[in-house]
Design brief:
With 352 residues, the protein is α+β, with helices and mostly antiparallel strands. The two termini are 32 Å apart. It is built from 10 helices and 14 strands. The strands form 3 sheets. The chain has an 8-stranded mixed β-sheet with strand order 1-2-10-7-12-5-4-3. Strands 6-11-8-9 form a 4-stranded antiparallel β-sheet, with no helix packed on it. Helix 3 crosses helix 7 and helix 4 crosses helix 7. The chain has one domain: Jelly Rolls (Sandwich). The radius of gyration is 20 Å and the shape is globular. The longest helix has 28 residues. The structure holds 2-oxoglutaric acid and fe (ii) ion (FE2). Fe (ii) ion binds next to loops.
Length: 352
Amino acid sequence: MSTLSEVYKDHPLHLKHIIPLDFASVGSLMPDSHVWPGSGDFSSSEEEYNRTSVPVIDLRDPNASEHIRRACEAWGVFQLINHGISPRLIEEVEDEAERFFALPAQQKLKALRSPGGATGYGVARITPFFSKHMWHEGFTIMGSPLDHAREVWPHDHQRFCNAMERYQKEMKTLAERVARLIFRSLSINSGEEISWLGSSSINVSTALQLNSYPSCPDPNQAMGLAPHTDTSLLTILHQSQTINGLQIFRDGVGWLPISPLPGALFVNVGDLFHLISNARFSNVLHRVVVNGTRQRLSFAYFYGPPTEFVMSPLCKGLNSGQVPLYRSVAVKDYVSLKAKHLDNALSIIRID
Ligand SMILES: O=C(O)CCC(=O)C(=O)O
Ligand SMILES: [Fe+2]
């Protein structure tokens, strides 16, 4: 059975699309490579609207599944509270991520993602689709980060590895719980479609992405992370508690900032739940803007079915008379399609 890393091996990248800028060496002048044409003003006056409107789901609520269904239909995102992830663990991951991103560029490059690799230090995977670079550096982890971490810290990598491994373990359990609630909201409680969910012997597709957005000399000309949807079933995001940056796109409204809600994790529907729900759930388009004074960190945990699993719009999720909008596709083939086409991957498998 192929892993997510093996799928990415078929889509090697050029080093110029892997190596981040040495942000610490940038003075007050933006390098042209990072100036986005027509980016203009990223601020939004919708902050209050967002604060009151993005659904907040309490995982202890007995009706959580129903609330999540409504949130996935109307928004494709929600803030999750009482999720059970210990604040202490989140702090540890923050400390370790900060320790890594604060290293001199030379040191960080020791963990550089290889051209055919999926894990390690580098720019966002979506970089080749844009003519300008993003104001961002990342570290992708799938399971143990030991191989990369010991290159960076030959004698002091254990605390980084421990924090990242424990965080992924807890995130996996949480993602399973949330996925089960979402499937239940589609009337899928058992059966072939979710036979992989929660199984200890079947490898689900997961990745932990540590994101760092350094402070920027001209935030209005830079892009933290360009607009994209996630390839996952769902994504669980922790973001720095006091710094805005993430924005979601709402039809008829435009870009809305997602202010961090203290203690909450932010969940968004990815392409795969959009497909499985036959487009009932929105795979929300999102981006990240940067700020002029502070570095922002976020940790995205991507969760999906095993790579061999074939997804199709679920029959039970379809009301009678509805037709499937997408063709069936194996997770690995969809990941490949997205690696090649980014914005068009879903339209390629759409049934006209
Ligand atoms: O930094 C964020 O808030 C979002 C990160 C994100 O969208 C991603 O890693 O896919
Ligand atoms: Fe994302």
